[in-house]
Amino acid sequence: MADTRDKQSRVEPYQRYHELSLALGCRAVGKKLAFQLQGRSFTLEWIPPGKSTPLQVRVSTPGGPTSHPPIPIGSPQPDAAFSPLRGNARPRVTCEAALVLRLEKAIDRFGKRILLNRELRTGDDAFDDAVYIETDAPDACVRTLLAEPAVRQFALRILQEGWQGIELSTEGEVIVTMPVKAANSLLPERFTPTLQTLAAFAEHLPALQAGRGARFGLADLVSIGAIVGSVLSWPALFVASRLWPTVDSGLVLASLSGGLIAWLVSLPVLIVIQRGRSTSLRDFCICVVFLALGLPVGSIALLLTVNGLPDAATPEVRKVEILRKYTSGSRSRTYYTTVRSWRKGESTLDIDVGSSLYHDAREGGVLVVRTKPGLLGHEWVVSLEARSGA
To answer: Residue 163 has what DSSP assignment?
Structure first.
């Protein structure tokens, strides 16, 4: 019985979605459904659930009055059409950057309180206190988009009805997305009033013209660099530690310390670069996390490479006795041999020999270690060979 109810709860949203599409008179356009409501074109899209996201429904419609739909880039720009809702010419706005309206969260208020986030205020206190404006568009563009009181009122109503946010895309489209928490939310009698509110919101917007998208600024480049650099630092460390491994951990510890110091120094620089945008706190946190992962690792990889790659010295051959063998780690094992040290002030050395050499090595046998002095003065291992005797 429980399995039947569970199966029904999974199938019911799809049935409701199908019933909704029939009630709206939808027709298939690619992977989306298209329909008309109040003389306005809409598209309806079903977004399957992900590992951490629920089922979602996405609705989009052209922004601006129906008599003045978005104009593609490069098309002639006719005079602004007369608005049936206002007795004057409707202003035209070019969407150079996407704009998202969503309910303000505590993290947004925190970002503004610490003077990291900057959000434009429209002068409508009820709207400004409840809605967060996330965009890189110029202030003048945003003010024009939200100048009409009806636009702000309809936007607030849509968000309070459970929609995640209202996006004004660079193509001049108004897009809203709603998580389907209950199948009943897709009933036509509950869904259609929201569509009517969305239609009114889009109708009261200025005439929208598709833009070319916002250009990447310094803050965007820093964020991308932090992510890409952090991701690349790990394979770089893997390669450097295999090609130029040091005999001791001195260089690795020094590199790790240097990377952490560089990370601390980067924090105030990041604040200066990232502050002053609606997404500053989020972008700052992303940079902080990725640099915390990437700078120490990248420093190790860099210094191992500088120490070993240009070292043109002739390798020295060390024949040392293998005292014992051991492994560390459970899932990802590391294989070591403990040998008598040839270095002053040390009696033994632990050397990572890899799995194949580990199985060939025998306690009491000989490990042949070929080393170079290192450009930075840290001796590193060129090659290893296990022998049964002296």
So the answer is: -
